[in-house]
């Protein structure tokens, strides 16, 4: 399912217009992004939670040449599925 299909599904199941569903989805996504940028955590009980984790700098290898390269440190987004979501997927 892509973003436009999700908007269509949200509009149909909630009985709202596609424009309202798009606005709601974009608001949700921007709020999640803003919270993660500030180093916060977003948790939806039963669905899952998003958090930011720091990945340390490390050395890697170029697979073509075999030379050692330096990989810079960066922040990564992690998602952990909630119990209800895992249960629904594993029925």
If strands are numbered along the chain, what order do they take across the biggest sheet?
1-2-5
| Strand coverage percent | 25-35%
The tally of beta strands, per DSSP, is: 5
Kindly name the structural category.
Answer: alpha+beta
Number of helices: 3
- Compute the CA-based radius of gyration: 19 Å
Q: Spell out the helices and strands N to C.
A: HHEEEEEH
Biggest sheet features: 3 strands, antiparallel
Distance between the termini: 20 Å
On the 0 to 100 scale, the average pLDDT is 96
List the uncertain runs: none
Say what oligomer this is: single chain
GO molecular function, one term: DNA binding
Pfam family, one: Bac_DNA_binding
Family: Belongs to the bacterial histone-like protein family.
Organism: Flavobacterium chuncheonense
Give a brief description.
By secondary structure, this protein is an alpha+beta fold.
Tell me what the structure shows.
The protein has 91 residues and is α+β, with helices and mostly antiparallel strands. The chain contains three helices and five strands, in the order H-H-E-E-E-E-E-H. The strands form two sheets. The chain has a three-stranded antiparallel β-sheet with strand order 1-2-5. Helix 1 crosses helix 2. Pfam families: Bac_DNA_binding. InterPro entries: Hist_DNA-bd (IPR000119), IHF-like_DNA-bd_dom_sf (IPR010992). Keywords: DNA condensation, DNA-binding. Belongs to the bacterial histone-like protein family.
